[in-house]
Amino acid sequence: MLRTRVIPCLLLKDRGLVKTVKFKDPTYLGDPINIVKIFNDKEVDELVFLDITATVENRRPPFDLLSKITSECFMPLGYGGGVRHLEDIRKLLNLGVEKVAVNSYAVENPLFIKAAADQAGSQSIVASIDVKVNRLGEYEVYTHSGQKATGLHPVKLAMEMEEQGAGELLLNSIDRDGTMQGYDLELIRQVSRAVTIPVVASGGAATIQHLAEVVKQGGASAAAAGSMFVFQGPRRAVLISYPSSQELRAVYGE
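^ thats the sequence. predicted structure below, dont judge the formating
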């Protein structure tokens, strides 16, 4: 079995799946249930679903939809979006979600991560960190789907999330999201070197070589991608794909 995880990261909006570019201009992909079934057939390592409007709209996770998704999903599933209550985490785990990602509320209330890890175990709690380069040319954490600047450096936040008990980090580059220009290796290196917990890198992948680079050169523990797995060709036609285990073993040397 491949040791390095390669994870499709899927975005929920209005109960459908979309893909963004730099967290903007969502393109509709289709029904999440149908796309999950395709990934089942492709024997994907795991899936991550992020509801990109839950926090902005001040609503809780779409539990009814997630119940349908988990009943069809044959691989480990992570979810993030609108999680602000311990009861949300309990409910998500009871539905079959294996990992719960907390983003905006983790910045507002870091102690929530500790409470969540104490309740569910660190292995179930992911701190999701969205980063872009600010006007000063420095990395800065943004929340609320990239709309709200925090003044925080991602390394500082990552270290705090690990200290509070997060078992994993999902590190998203807003500047690279959907561009298919490769990961921000410098960002990933900085964060990966600062923590001991796994870092899942997301934002910019277009080729299987990018998936290898982010682990071998960036120091990430796992590679997540969106556009690479849902678009085909220069016109970005919707086509769900995933590398074969042989292709992944070849680039990772496993």
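The first strand starts at residue 5 and ends at 13.
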